[in-house]
Design a protein that fits this description.
Blueprint lengths: L17 E8 L4 E6 L5 E6 L13 H17 L4 E7 L5 H10 L3 E7 L17
Parallel strand pairs: 1-4, 4-5
Antiparallel strand pairs: 1-2, 2-3
Helix pairs in contact: 1-2
Family: Belongs to the universal ribosomal protein uS11 family.
Subunit structure: Part of the 30S ribosomal subunit. Interacts with proteins S7 and S18. Binds to IF-3.
Pfam families: Ribosomal_S11
Length: 129
Amino acid sequence: MAKEPKKSKKNLAQNLSHARAYVTATFNNTLVTITDQNGNALIWGSAGSAGFRGARKSTPYAATTVVENIAKKAKEIGISSIEIYLKGPGPGRDSTTRAFKAAGLNITMIADVTPIPHNGPRASKRRRV
């Protein structure tokens, strides 16, 4: 009978006032992660975890709902201002920024960090018909 290791839950910093919000907006889902200044994840959520399934997951309304849930938790731990980093071309891109503002969080910066290839891999050969 081996002892099971104790599972410890990380203590969230209660004096945290500024954080970063990473929004990944894909065509099928919207993921939002709130981190501290060092990049340690504090809160996360997605349209799927907010209860949306199928085609409704990829709507701006679902993205707004996700941000409302996360902003409520962020205010509980003392976050008042955020930097937003947007990634991806999805429909939840703009609505997340509006939802953060509507939730009463002060937005200090908005940055687009969508990866853009510098020419990328070689294209496949041309199709002959």
